[in-house]
Write a structure and sequence with these properties.
Elements (H helix, E strand, L loop, with lengths): L1 H32 L6 H19 L2 H24 L7 H23 L15 E3 L5 E3 H23 L1 H18 L4 H23 L9 H16 L4 H26 L5 H11 L2 H13 L11
Helix pairs in contact: 1-5, 1-6, 1-7, 1-8, 1-9, 2-3, 2-4, 2-7, 2-8, 3-7, 5-6, 8-9, 8-11, 9-10
Length: 306
């Protein structure tokens, strides 16, 4: 049982850093630009397809990853210029409708370009295999590398947001974007930077998870709902909140799905316990969100409404 707990805790940490990479951009886009972007999940999918394509063309995962990053930046800038920018002055309902339409357009475009058959990305040889943890327990090296990469990005974002001029503008924009614009900051360039950064982070998440998941057109939608939960729990516009919220959501979700049926075995028949546990486990994340919002309506690190 201890080994299972440690294993699922690591799986939760891995899911958590992936959710953080997606949620960090989403929380900045909503917190600074006041744009509800339902298409953020497709950027995660695009990153996976880009790494699959570039890795196949170059024969190297690492070269594919290097090519994916500037391509993701271009994708983000193009989407911001053509789709998101005309929505700045529009209502949230218009933003939801437009970005939902973008989701359908991108999904169909991906099917046309890459087909409907799921793609696979081979594990880099350097990170293949497993390492021993405790006793007979082993854990894949690549999954540990995902955790390390996510933590490195989180540390880099912390330095940028808290110790650079760009970070100062991002924090000020999340607090009062009208005042930032009034002080002479080019708010359109700031918006473009924020959206491009969010796009690169989401594509990076899709790229690093591609070797352990199948790359298909539905992978973006599967994480989008959890990402919104992370943003709400952490507080809109807060990178620190996105990080802590992502870890909380991922660990609760992972442990709940694994240990929920096990714990219910003590009070229910095995078949009923398994079925009930699978039904109740997805609810734990939303119970967690409700409890946090009851105590702190603005989220863990969100700004309190005046």
């Amino acid at each position: 049982m201890t080994n299972l707990f440690i294993l699922q805790l690591l799986n939760g940490a891995q899911l958590g850093v992936l959710l953080f990479l997606i949620a960090a951009g989403l929380t900045l886009v909503f917190g600074i630009m006041d744009v509800i972007n339902l298409a953020h999940g497709v950027l995660y999918m695009i990153g996976a397809y880009l790494i699959a394509t570039f890795a196949a063309l170059t024969g190297s995962f690492w070269l594919g990853l290097l090519l994916m990053l500037p391509a993701a930046l271009v994708v983000g800038l193009v989407i911001e210029r053509l789709v998101i920018r005309p929505l700045y002055a529009r209502s949230h309902l218009d933003q939801v409708l437009a970005t939902f339409g973008l989701v359908m357009i991108v999904n169909e475009g991906v099917k046309i370009l890459w087909g409907t058959t799921p793609l696979s990305v081979p594990l880099p040889a350097l990170l293949s295999g497993s390492i021993p943890l405790i006793g007979p327990l082993q854990y894949p090296v690549y999954r540990l590398a995902i955790i390390a990469a996510g933590l490195a990005v989180a540390a880099g974002l912390y330095v940028v947001v808290n110790h650079t001029r760009i970070g100062m503008l991002l924090r000020a924009g999340a607090t009062n974007r009208d005042m930032v614009s009034a002080l002479g900051v080019n708010i359109r360039k700031l918006f473009s930077l924020v959206f491009a950064l969010g796009a690169v982070l989401a594509c990076f998440a899709g790229a690093i998870v591609a070797p352990i998941l199948s790359v298909d057109t539905g992978m973006g939608e599967s994480v989008l709902i959890l990402t919104f939960v992370v943003v709400v729990i952490g507080g809109i516009g807060s990178i620190r909140g996105a990080f802590l919220g992502a870890l909380l959501v991922a660990i609760v979700d992972t442990l709940g799905k694994t240990f929920g049926p096990i714990l219910l075995h003590y009070i229910m028949e095995p078949a009923a316990a398994g079925q009930t546990g699978r039904m109740l486990a997805p609810m734990l994340v939303y119970i967690l969100m409700a409890a946090i919002l009851f105590a702190r309506p603005q989220g863990l690190f969100g700004q309190r409404a005046s």
